[in-house]
UniProtKB/TrEMBL annotation:
Record flagged with keyword Membrane: yes
Superkingdom of the organism of origin: Bacteria
Record's protein name: Penicillin-binding protein
Listed InterPro entries: Beta-lactam/transpept-like, Glyco_trans_51, Glycosyltr_51/Transpeptidase, Lysozyme-like_dom_sf, PBP_transglycosylase, PCN-bd_Tpept
Source lineage: Bacteria, Bacillati, Actinomycetota, Actinomycetes, Micromonosporales
Length: 714
């Protein structure tokens, strides 16, 4: 049997014969009747055949929400259009009733194009001599929104909204198609999620948040009527202006329409119209500079997360695509930052160095075995507003350039394009690991004089003599026979240069690379090449730049007994459908770990590093003292680590780790590396790490380190 139902084009052709499309054109536009009516029935029908048969619906841009580790504390949002999809069941029934009453009272009666509405508008506009009424149904309006949102070029965007007869024809044809494919409830839901309400709020979820700071399911009658009234002209009826008269008039009109439709009672209407407009405006945060002022310090972590996102191929082919995806993709991101640990870290950082100091004091805390970053704290405010910043610490620039304190958006802790800071004797960990990996035991002994004439030719470093590089110790008490335990615990330079000569400087450089360090300055890049690394004697004393994230994660690798995990700022990433995002079969938010050194090598290094903190080695003698004994005294649990100062105290570091957490803190002047921190600041990083880890691990088991086997002891 032949299907005699009219096609989409057939339905519109019937309207042409009835003379109603011409009326529609005039109803919605200031177009002459002949613009379409003069085409004739056949020409008009032929024109319809060239129009698209089905609406192409591209998912609207949605807001990405970024939370702290608890999954509840909002860090910030990313969006181009503030929007979030919500189902009808998540909306107050008042808003669905109000939008129908406001925009299309015959919504449930027509099939996409309202013939009666067209006729009514045609007559009204003819009498008015212009456009006084429109005839676009809710479905036609939705089509227009969908065409706008799916536009990939400026030309397509213009065609979606331009005031032409052809646009109206296309809207009608597609509206009828949509009505054949979707239910009224589906159309209404899509409409309410796409409509623009002003103040960059797209969709009812955003509008409810922006104007009333509540979810759409909690909207009252007068609130719903107010929002529904905005769709026609968001600027003209904006209730956030001083004069709310226009907004109130429009709201009351919507309420009257709801009463006419029988959606509400006369008593409800009267009460709602008497109510004053009460807004609770909110401006949703956008990007890292909009992190809540109470948690402004989280901005540096947010910036690290954003840079990390840009590097993930799961979110696009290049950095621009990935950033656009972040702003439009509607993801729910649970990051790794722990609010409690971050608060403790900030407290201890600011107790040592105030924000108005030119010296940056910062700390990064990483979880061994996952690489997840649980804290990034620094004595700065993450802000673009730098008019009141202090003077630059370089006197040659101080008259023309302000310093980056207390406000900055520079990635002081890592993740951006900053090279970092010289990490000093912290780098001895790489030499020791390389030696242990080569089979040299912890008991390897060298006589360590006050100054040592190395085999290395003069290179960037703290001391030279003639053509050779000749480092010296910081204290005469370091002179004598040292092992890895005592040499590392006391940070004996002349011991470690001999150890580096034995194993090869290139092996120490390679070890640092295995543990995640990258070379960002031209000097470091050149010296780290295979042609030059073997002669980079000063490497073991930390003349290279590194970021706090890199150093903290390197020590976390040792704490994880040799398993390196990429630094990771996230716990989970879900798409708008609630599915975990994956790439090439792996979850994007999952730890990315691999073994880079053996368990026994890591355990041996930990045993020597326990001499530094005062906790003490399990398999050997620390030689009577360590450089950072206050660390164990403060934390009161097994802890290993390494202090690091550069020549003349340009910077001062401490990196410490337990089996559960690793942290690295520093103090330096990011604006001027030649501005020395001085001896008075040489211990603050040690206390910051110890106090932060103490607070973070309170109530957790005091886990002990596993001692190394005899193979790397004797």
């Amino acid at each position: 049997m032949t299907d005699r139902r009219p096609t989409v084009a057939g339905r519109v052709a019937l309207l042409i014969r009835a003379g109603l499309i011409a009326g529609l054109v005039i109803a919605g536009l200031s177009y002459p009747l002949t613009a379409l009516a003069g085409m004739g029935v056949k020409a008009g029908t032929d024109a319809l055949e060239n129009l698209p048969e089905q609406l192409t619906e591209v998912p609207s841009a949605q807001t990405t929400y970024v939370y702290a580790k608890d999954g509840k504390t909002l860090l910030t949002t990313f969006y181009e259009e503030y929007r979030r999809q919500v189902a009808l069941k998540g909306m107050s029934p008042y808003i669905t009733q109000a939008i129908v009453a406001s925009e299309d009272t015959r919504f449930y009666e027509h099939h996409g194009v309202d013939a009666k509405g067209v006729a009514r508008a045609f007559v009204a506009n003819q009498q008015a001599g212009g456009v006084s009424q429109g005839a676009s149904t809710l479905t036609m309006q939705y089509v227009r929104m969908a065409l706008r949102d799916s536009a990939s070029t400026p030309k397509e965007a213009l065609e979606a909204t331009e005031q032409t007869a052809s646009r109206k024809l296309r809207e009608m044809r597609l509206a009828i198609e949509v009505e054949q494919r979707l239910s009224k409830q589906q159309i209404l839901q899509r409409y309410l999620n796409a409509a623009y309400f002003g103040h960059r709020a797209y969709g009812i979820y955003a509008a409810s948040e922006v104007f009333f700071s509540k979810a759409p399911k909690n909207l009252t009658l007068n609130e719903a009527a107010l929002l529904a009234g905005l769709v026609k002209a968001p600027s003209a009826y904006d209730p956030a202006t001083k004069d709310q008269a226009a907004a109130q008039t429009r709201r009351n009109y919507v309420i009257d329409q709801m009463l006419k439709m029988g959606s509400i009672t006369a008593a409800q209407a009267a009460s709602a119209k008497k109510a004053k407009i009460k807004l609770k405006l909110s401006t949703p945060p956008n990007d890292c500079v909009s992190v809540n002022s109470e948690h402004n310090d989280w901005g540096f972590f947010c910036d690290y997360f954003k840079n990390w996102w840009r590097e993930q191929p799961a979110f696009g082919k290049n950095t621009l695509d990935r950033e656009e995806n972040l702003r439009r993709g509607g993801y729910r991101v649970v990051t790794s930052i722990d609010p409690k640990i971050q608060a403790s870290a900030m407290k201890h950082v600011l107790a040592k160095e105030k924000r108005n100091s030119p010296f940056a004091h910062g700390q990064v805390v990483v979880q061994p075995g996952s690489g997840r970053i649980v804290s990034m704290a620094v004595n700065r405010r993450y802000s673009l507003q730098q008019d009141d910043n202090g003077r630059h610490s370089d006197s040659a620039q101080s008259d023309d350039v302000r310093g980056n304190y207390p406000n900055t958006v520079n990635p002081l802790l890592g993740g951006g394009d900053m090279a970092g800071y010289q990490a000093g004797s912290t780098f001895k960990i790489f030499t020791m690991l390389a030696a242990l990996e080569a089979g040299m035991p912890l008991s390897t002994s060298y006589y360590s004089p006050p100054r040592f004439v190395s085999k290395y030719i003069t290179a960037p470093g703290p001391a030279t003599c003639g053509d050779n590089w000749c480092p010296k110790n910081s204290s005469p008490s370091m002179t004598g026979n040292q092992t890895m335990w005592s040499g590392f615990g006391k940070s004996v330079n002349t011991y470690f240069v001999q150890l580096e000569q034995r194993v090869g400087a290139e092996k120490a450089v390679a070890m640092a690379e295995k543990l995640g360090l990258k070379w960002r300055t031209e000097v470091d890049k050149n010296l780290a090449t295979p042609d030059h690394a073997s002669g980079w004697g000063a490497f073991t004393l930390g003349v290279s730049d590194a970021t706090p994230v890199e150093i903290a994660n390197a020590f976390a690798t040792v704490a994880a007994e040799g398993r390196y995990c990429e630094p990771l700022p996230v716990m989970a990433i879900r798409d708008p459908d609630g599915k975990d995002v994956s790439y090439q079969g792996k979850l994007v938010a999952a730890p990315r770990c691999k073994r880079v050194i053996s368990e026994n090598v890591a355990r041996a290094a930990t045993d020597a590093a326990s001499c530094v903190t005062g906790y003490g080695a399990q398999r050997g003698s620390c030689g009577g003292w360590g450089t950072s004994e206050m660390v164990y005294a403060t934390i009161g649990r097994p802890i290993a680590g390494k202090s690091g100062t550069t020549d003349n105290n340009k910077t001062a570091w401490f990196s410490g780790f337990t089996p559960q957490l690793a942290a690295s803190a520093f103090v330096a002047d990011p604006d001027n590396p030649e501005h020395y921190v001085g001896t008075g600041r040489s211990t603050i990083s040690k206390y910051t790490v110890a106090e932060t880890l103490r607070d973070a691990l309170k109530g957790q088991p005091k886990l002990k380190f596993t001692p190394p086997s005899d193979k790397l002891v004797y």
